[in-house]
Amino acid sequence: MRYLHHSYRFVFVFLMYVATLAVMFLSAPAAHAQSFVVAPLSLTNTAGNAGFGGLFSGNYTVLQYIPAVDGVVPGLRIGDRITGVSYRLGQTGTSNAIAFSDYDVFLSQGLANDPGTSTFADCYDPGTRTQVRDGALSFAAGAFPSGATPNAFGRTLEFSAGFVYNGGALVLESRSVYASGDIVQTDMQLGGDANGFRVMYGTGSAATTADIINLHNTALIPQFTVVAVIPEPASVALIGMIGLGMVALRRRRK
What count of other Cβ atoms lies within 10 Å of the Cβ of residue 142? Predict the structure, then answer.
């Protein structure tokens, strides 16, 4: 190393130092920030103007099309991981006890919203369709909070597999096999803030078309649990030190 020019010696030492710091910092676990995103975002603290009994009622398939604005669903960021979903009781709904022997949930990236189709598969990119929940589901009587405007969101349906959001429209699909209990009517918005949204409702847990209803400009107001990866302060500091080192190197060369 004594034969190296002093500038190159400085570069060598500096790079070795940065490499050591990188190993230390990058081996640390990434920090995560959890938040909740309601769709439509504008209805986070505002009740919908209707109720829907199809999500928690019987053997049905419900598809929700959630549009993007300027390439993203409002409230979501590209790279966010969606880890759960919850709903709130409609203003005239009753929080009944209900059970399902199977309640599957899928998430997909949405395609262009074709108003002429009633086929579920026409609404999403099949290469992105991910099953995020499987298995039995039950709610006890009173499980959904009531008495407020809007009502608070109920229990989160946690996803066994998270879905990484990569931009564009989002499609949320629920397929239920009824076991027992009474309908739970959840909050819904017709028109207004739900413009561009869509709800498709089909008979049976294996339905492929909306043979019951196909409602445009309609939203079921889901609340997504979202986890975003955020930079560790140490990683930010490492980037800053590299920048300072490069500035010092330029000064030495001058």
Answer: 11
- DSSP letters spanning 221-241: --EEEEEEEE--HHHHHHHHH
- Based on the domain organization, do 83 and 149 belong to the same domain? yes
Verify that 21 and 129 share a domain, yes or no.
Answer: no
Q: What is the pTM of this model?
A: 0.81
pLDDT at 115: 87
pLDDT in tens, 47-92: 999 999 999 999 999 999 999 999 999 999 999 999 999 999 999 9
pLDDT given at position 17: 54
Number of H helices, E strands in the chain: 2, 14
Residue of 239, 241, 230, 232 whose CA lies nearest to 28: 232
Please tell me whether residues 46 and 149 are part of one structural domain: yes
| Domain span holding position 16 | 6-28+232-253
Residues forming a β-bridge with 37? 224
Structure tokens at 80: 């966010």
Residue 1 lies in a domain: no
Q: Are residues 128 and 241 in the same domain?
A: no
